[in-house]
Amino acid sequence: MATNNGSGPTQQAALKFLKRIELYKNQKPYRIFYANPGIPRTNEIIEEQMVSITDIRGCDQEFSIEKNGFEIFRITPPSYQDCIESKDRQEYPHIKKEPIATWGDFLVDKICSQFGAEEAVIIDYRYRQSHPKFPCAPAEPYQYGQPATTVHLG
């Protein structure tokens, strides 16, 4: 492993990306998770690229939203059990039945506090937990989304 400007160890890794092809200018990449006769399950074309990955643990203060487009700040989230306790329902009456809403409210509050924002919006979230047979897809329903196998780019 080589080091990267003192930030932490760096190593090369093959990551999977959606290939930039002409088709995606007119058709959104898609993946269907169920059989649909006559329609391909996906139009995705994936390619691997070697990427340098640097371990940034312990270098939290080197990054800022202004300089790097992201920032690291430490938070201690409430436990899942705390999210569903009835006392929390009384303390936070705006929280609905879903415990994940408590996490969302918690994160929005922390992000607004950290960056001095008046509002933050969680656009999407997914709870992922790998099936014991991951990355193989067992032919049985599974409660959680599986870990992503391709890089997410906005």
Description:
This protein is of the alpha+beta class and 154 residues long. Helices cover 21% and strands 14% of the residues. It is built from four helices and three strands. The chain has helices at residues 65-68, 80-84, 86-91, 99-115; strands at residues 2-3, 9-18, 46-54. The chain has a three-stranded antiparallel sheet with strand order 1-2-3, with no helix packed on it. A hairpin with a 5-residue loop joins strand 1 (2-3) and strand 2. The two termini are 30 Å apart.
Order of helices and strands: EEEHHHH
Main sheet overview: 3 strands, antiparallel
Number of helices: 4
Report the C-alpha radius of gyration, rounded.
Answer: 20 Å
Principal-axis shape equals extended
> Mean of residue pLDDT?
77
Residue share in β-strands: 5-15%
Helix content: 10-25%
Strands, total number: 3
Strand order of the largest sheet: 1-2-3
Which structural category do the helix and sheet elements fall into? alpha+beta
Cα(first) to Cα(last) distance is 30 Å
Q: Oligomer, anyone?
A: single chain
Q: Are there runs of 5+ residues with pLDDT below 50, and where?
A: none
SSE diagram, text form:
Blueprint (H helix, E strand, L loop, with lengths): L1 E2 L5 E10 L27 E9 L10 H4 L11 H5 L1 H6 L7 H17 L39
Antiparallel strand pairs: 1-2, 2-3
